[in-house]
Structures are given as C-alpha cells and as structure tokens.
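Sorry to interrupt, but I need a hand with the structure work. Go ahead and set the record down below:
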Amino acid sequence: MFEEQRTDDRHIQIHHDVLGSALVSGDGNKVFIYHYHLDQQAAPEPKVTIPQLAANPYRGLSAFQVEDADVYFGREAQVDRLWNRLRDLHERATQEHLPVRLLPILGPSGSGKSSLARAGLLPELARRPLPGHRQTRVVVMKPGSTPLEALAVVLARIATNDPSPAAKAAEFEQVLRQKSDRSQHEGLRRIANMLPSIDTSPLVILVDQFEEVYSLCKDAQERTAFIDCLIGVAATPEARVSVVITLRLDFVKETQQHPLLNQVIGSDQSAIVPAMTGKELHRAIAEPAKQAGHALDEGIVDRLIEQTEGREGALPLLQFALTRIWEGLGEGRAPSETLKAIGGVGGALAGEAQRIYDSLNSQEKDIARRVFVGLVQLGEGTRDTRRRASVKSLIAAEDDPKQVRYVLDRFSAPGARLITLSTSQDNEIAEVTHEALFEYWQQLTYWLDNCRDSIRQQRKIEASAEEWQATGCKRGYLLQGPQLSEAVRFRKHVKQFPLSKQAELFVVKSLWSQRISRLWLLIFLVVPALVVESALREARIDRLYVDAQGTDRSRQRQAVTALLEGCSREASSRLFPYLADRFFGDCRSLANRNLRGADLSVADLSVADLRGADLRVANLKIANLSGANLSGAELSNAKLFGADFIGADLSGANLRDADLNAADFIGANLRDADLSGANLRDADLRDADLRGADLSGADLSGVTLCQTRLPEGSNLDADRDCER
C-alpha cells in the first residue's frame, strides 16, 4: 500500500500512500502520520535540482516537514528534550495524580516550533518509540476556522482508511460537539476508544499553529468544545491518546479563557523553543550541504552564523538565503559571491519583498507603501526600527479594507513572511518580520528618505487622534489654532499619506468645534444688533423657511443653520424662548419641512425639531443631531457618517439604506425605525432603544452594544461590549 519515498542514513525510512498519509519506520518501529489541513494551504516551495548537483537540502521560508527529517539538523538536543517529556507523560499516566498528556511547544513567530515538532519529534518516535509501543499513529492538523470539523475528518480517515470519509466525518463531528451526561465533552475519548488497535497503537494528536483556535475560529462554543476534547482525552488513565501543540508565545494570554489548558501551559511540562546556539546553527547550515555531497566552506558558514545568531525570527531568513546559495552553486557561483549579491541573510528577503511588490497593481502598491512606512519607527539620530501597529490604523479612510487585507496577506504568507501578524488586547497587530528590510530593500529606503517630514506629521496627527479617542472624545483634546491649521493643510495637500478613519473624524470634529466656537463669538458680538433688528426677525425667518426648502444648496444650508443655530444653547438655558432667541440665535421648528438632498455636513442640529422632515439623500456627515427630534423623519439614503445622535428621538424614522458608519446613537430612541439595508459599521448603540426596528440587511459589523434594547428575535448580544 505504501510506496517508499526516501531512505537516509539517520535510521528512518519514510513512505507515502494514496491518502497523503505517511509511514515513518526505523529499527522495527512504525509511526503512521495522518495529515489534514482544513483551510487551503500555500503550496510548498519547489525543490530546485540543478544538473550535477543534488536536490536543494534547504527549505526556504517553509517549515520543515516529517519528510525533511534527513536534512533537519541542529535541534537534536531539543528533540531529545521533547521526546523525554512525552515519554515521561506516558510513564506517569498510571500514577494516582496523573498529569495531562499534553505537551505544549511554545515560542515566538519564526522560532522553528513547527519544524521542531514535524521534522524533529515525529521522526524521533520512529527511532525511539514510546515505552511499550513499537507502533504509533499521529494526527497532524491545524485548527483553521472550524477545528472540530478538521479533527473529525482526519479521525474518520483513520477509522475508515478512506481519503474522503464524508459520512463518517459528519458522524464524528456530531460526537465531538455533544456533551455527556456529566456536561463534559467526551466525544474524542469515545472516538479514540473505537479506533482499530488503539491499545497497541496509541494516538498522538499534533495540533500545529494552535493559535488559530483563537485567531481564526470565531465560534466560542466550538473553540471550547475542541479544547475540552483535547484536555479530556489527554487526562484519561488509559494513555491511549496524547496531545502535542505548537503555540506562539503572544497567544499564551488567550489560553486564560480555558483554565485547565492555561495551567498545563504554565506548568513545567511546557517546552519553550530557545534560540539556536552558534554550534546548533553550524549543524543546521553545514550538515545538509555535506549530506547532499557539496560541503560549504567554513568561511561562508561562519558568516551566515554571524548574520543569524541572536536575531529574532531569523531562521526562515537563513533558510531562504541558503536556498539562494544552493541555486547559485548550480549556476557556477561561489557561495560567498551569491551571499554578497543577495545582500546577506536579510538581503535575500529584500529581493523577495521587491518581487511581491512588483506583482501588485498600482492601487495595491500605494497600500503596500503606506503599510510598510506605517510599520517603521523613524529614528531620531538613531537607526530606524520596527514599529508595531494595529491593522485598523493602517487602513486609510479612503481604503477598501479587503484590499488592505489582501496586501497584508501577500506579504505575510508562509512563502514570504515579510510581515508578521499577531494579536494584542483583541487588536490585530502587524510588524515587519525582520529589520534587515530597512537596510537592504531599496524601495523602502527610498520611501523613508523622501517622506520623513510627511511621515512625522502624519504620526503626530494620528497620535493626537488616538489620545482624543482614549479620553472618550472629549472636546478639550481636539486640535485648535496652528495645530488645526497644520492638520488641515496636511489633509488637503499630502495625498500620498491619507489619514486613518479615526484621524479623519478627529480633524473634522476639530473643525466643527472651531466653527462652533467662532459662531458663539459672533453671536456674543452681535447681540445688540439682534435686539435692534427684532422687528425684522420674523420677516427674515419667513425668508429662511423659503430658502430652507429651496433648491439652492448653499442658501439652503445657510437657512437651516440660521433657523437652528440657537437650539443647543436654548435647551440648556432657563430663558423664555423669546429672550433665548435673541441671546443665542433662532431655534425654529423644521417639522415636516422638505430638506431633501440638503448639504448639512458638520452642521450643529442638536435638539432640533425635525419631526417628519424630508431629509432623503441629505448629506449630514459629522452633523451634531444630539437630542434632536427626528421622529417620523424621512432619512433614506442619507449620508450620516460620524453623525452625533446622542439622546435623539428617531422613533418611526425611515433610515433605509442610510450610511450611518461610525454614528453615535448613545441613548437614542430608534423604536419602530426602518434601518433595513443601512450601513451601521462601527456605530455606537449603547443604551439605544431599537425595539420594533427593522434591521434586515443592515451592516452591523463593529457596532458597540451595551444595555441596548434590541428588536425581538435579534441574535446579537445586547451587552457584549459592557466590559470595554
């Protein structure tokens, strides 16, 4: 059934079958390995074979697999340590206080966790079997977005010997999801006990890139069921199943959601992958070439060690450079010549960066430029360094988030690894994988050298916006005076560095605040004149009503602003309306008025009476509508990005297909409102009343919910954001 692939001098043989599984054998021991990747994986980098030169023994930017065991050198001590820990877990399984047979392999991104598990530990089980077992079966999987489905499929393959066991996989998945009478997930234990020869051929489950349980799986119940299944089966005294996971260190905090898993990871049975020593690097560099029949001279080996040792995430870069060196040998170039040509370990990666960049279209190149520049901390008299930034902050107001995600994925893919993505406090974080890019990638150097002043100015605005956001968007943190003028000039003239949505809103709010301040100054100066002109007021009001419902947009805006300019002050004053109008400006009702298509962006319409008003297709971006009465108003297809609806009454209003992105609805009354098809991305709905509202087809991604009264039948959690 199995067709032999390779025999090497490291005492194991590797065979493959038609199922894509592998048999690793050595000294009479056998390890059956069953692979399954639910999500689409990047194709492995091709092994370049040059005439008169053996196949490339290096793996570029890809992780080592079990098939690469013959060229996996330098980690022998760590492999031995892992094997001993796994053996100890098995031998202690019959003790009264048995440990959970779960071996966590921890390390930062690029430290070689996957390679150590796949090309190190698994082949070692063939060389040295677990006590009492000369045959072992290993499941190798990544969780993906649906870990229970992934686990069910690979277990079904073992049970049926079928490459596509759809029916059995569906059955197993259902078993994994079910809870027992003791309200525990015991499905994996039940399935394992059903597997053929489980007593003589135990099962080891290797969950590689375990962090995907948190980064890709969005179903909290499925995540918990998957982890409970693993912990449960690893805690049984029968010792039929053991679990090995590889986990990035920056995801360890996420395991606090699952105390038993967190306790195991925090115990001494975890193994942290250390950086390779100089001697280990020497073996990793020299031995594969020596085994392939073309030993590298000590000089080039020493130079590669010097450029790699002590550098975080440098192992993939080293393998990438070694691949280029091997290709150069086939073309008749000396290793030292190739290493110089590619610019050293970091230079090889820079060449890959340029290749990916050149493959993008013009719009994607602009995004790539802004992303990489955004991930550089400009040195002030020192060298530039890596800068961690949230992915959200890298998306400009004008960007399509999907396009930004595509560019990030291209540069962070397994075959590239130029950008590393991680999570921090529920935010996705991006950073450049290796600072060698700053030195060797000429394209990035050009961007930085020619745009430093603009970059610093953008960072200054973005930092102010973040501070404003962190303080609850208090008015005192808005830009004023020269700072605001400078930000407005930057926003208008420096198009190559557009601001993020948050910073854009910050500048617009600052402008609005400045205009309001100037308006009040004007009112204070003209009060005497207003008293004198009282006799003409009503005639002027009549003309304003005519203009407000006219087709001249400029006059219409002026009219509406004039009719409502005193509303916000009058609402908080104790003056009679007659006196309030003359001290603060008019506050007239616009109920049932025709304001269709009006341009009222950034307008202060707070506490306005707009009952039944026709505001269809109106531009109300960043408008202040706090406390306004918009009950029964027509607002379909209106542009309401960033509008302030705090405490507003929108009961029965028609907001069909309206753009309400980043709008603030704290305490707003939206009962029986029509919000079908509306864009409510990032809207704040805390304390809002949406009972009876129509939310069909509405985009609710990113909305903030706390003590929100939702329509009957809604599947949203009304209090999901109360802890923020």
